[in-house]
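Notebook, bench 3.
Goal today: get a predicted structure for ABC transporter ATP-binding protein from Lysobacter yananisis so we can plan the truncation constructs. The sequence was checked against the plasmid map this morning, with no discrepancies at the termini. Length recorded as 227 residues. Pasting the sequence as submitted so the record is complete.
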Amino acid sequence: MLTIRDLTKTYANGVRALDGICLDIPRGMFGLLGPNGAGKSSLMRTLATLQEADGGSAVLETDGRRIDVLREKDAVRRLLGYLPQDFGVYPKVSALDLLDHFAVLKGLGERKQRREVVEGLLHQVNLWNVRKQKLGGFSGGMRQRFGIAQALLGDPRLVIVDEPTAGLDPEERNRFLNLLAEIGENVAVILSTHIVEDVTDLCPTMAIVDKGKVLLSGEPNAAIAAL
Ligand code: ADP
Ligand code: ADP
């Protein structure tokens, strides 16, 4: 579904965050495992069209179309949901209001149409009962589930989640991963993480990255055993 070739990125400070990344990412849940500083966020931001690569290519194939991710930004943004690592929420706004606000930004129609989508998503991520509460009072896990609802606005074909379980307690982590697994049944999901179990528990295919390079990719247990 997503073919990445020779992707490179060197920051102004000289750090080579992406050093010739090649990946073939199929539909379903794909795990991107690597230590802090490996280049995961740089790759995610590049795929989300929030930052330019220096070179290489990324092609997204969906619904019979081939989209050049590095050039067709508008097309990519229509097809992609993104939960960044540093996803912030306005603390004084309710979940319902902020999600509706994001829906407006995504151009999801008039109030009535939006309401159906927004309410459906709040149910899906299990925040329906707290939809009128301010986000400032949400736990880390609730915020991340809100982040998933935001990422699912507009029916994306590919959802990218960057280090979503960092800082969650075990119960919230399980809850969040179960939600991701449900979503992964219908939509391609790239899960970036430094936690081995996030990948082995959830992802049929994965890649290990370090220092801007792909060390290996494949089925998790085989890949980890080969390390
Ligand atoms: P990860 O998500 O795997 O932790 P990152 O992509 O955040 O990795 O970082 C990869 C490398 O690039 C690290 O050495 C990091 O310090 C550096 N880096 C990330 N973002 C920037 C930036 N905006 N400017 C300079 N260096 C950066
Ligand atoms: P911090 O993120 O350190 O709390 P900021 O000044 O970046 O401080 O943000 C102030 C408040 O606004 C924070 O509560 C933050 O979560 C929220 N916020 C910042 N950026 C966004 C954003 N893009 N979307 C939603 N809320 C945001």
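Residues 141 and 169 are 8 Å apart (CA to CA). The mean pLDDT is 94.
Flagging this for group meeting.
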